[in-house]
UniProtKB/TrEMBL annotation:
This is Transcription elongation factor GreA/GreB C-terminal domain-containing protein. The lineage of its organism: Bacteria, Pseudomonadati, Kiritimatiellota, Kiritimatiellia, Kiritimatiellales.
């Protein structure tokens, strides 16, 4: 199942990359148009659009790099091992079970596979940092004070 989840995450990130490419193209077009049609000396619209385009381009490059790493990442089984990047973890918070996939990119991405919703978290996130190096049947406490029990690690 983990392979299917990772494939769905990659597909979702590819859509995000396409969205960023479109936004970059729009910002570049706006930059060129504004520079050619500036009405006042202090009209900074073109400069702002160019700055925005550079930001989108940088984000797109970073996302592409992370996706390449994700595509090359071996799919491991973390059963009985410490939780690390690549682990899928089921956690119970107050009687509700949620499934998370710990990856270096795509934090917040949700995918639905075989009726199960899986949320991508990163090691930098509050939950991701608390799960790292933990084991199945361990406890996890978030900075908010919410406590959970690690039910399964895949």
């Amino acid at each position: 199942m983990k392979e299917t989840v990772i494939a769905a995450v990659i597909q979702s990130l590819e859509k995000e990359l396409e969205r960023q490419a479109r936004a970059n193209a729009q910002s570049n077009a706006a930059s060129a148009f504004s520079a050619a049609h500036a009405e006042k000396q202090r009209d900074t619209t073109g400069f702002e659009a160019a700055h925005l385009a550079r930001g989108y381009a940088g984000q797109a490059l970073e996302l592409q790099h992370r996706m390449d790493e994700l595509k090359a990442m071996p799919v491991e089984d973390f059963t009985g091992q410490e939780i690390d990047v690549g682990a899928m973890v089921e956690v119970d918070f107050d009687g509700e079970s949620d499934t998370y996939l710990l990856l270096n990119c795509g934090g917040g991405t949700e995918v639905k596979v075989d009726g199960c919703t899986v949320t991508v978290i990163t090691p930098e996130s509050p939950l991701g940092s608390r799960l790292m190096n933990n084991f199945e049947a361990g406890f996890v406490e978030l900075p908010t004070g919410l406590e959970g029990i690690i039910l399964a690690v895949y």
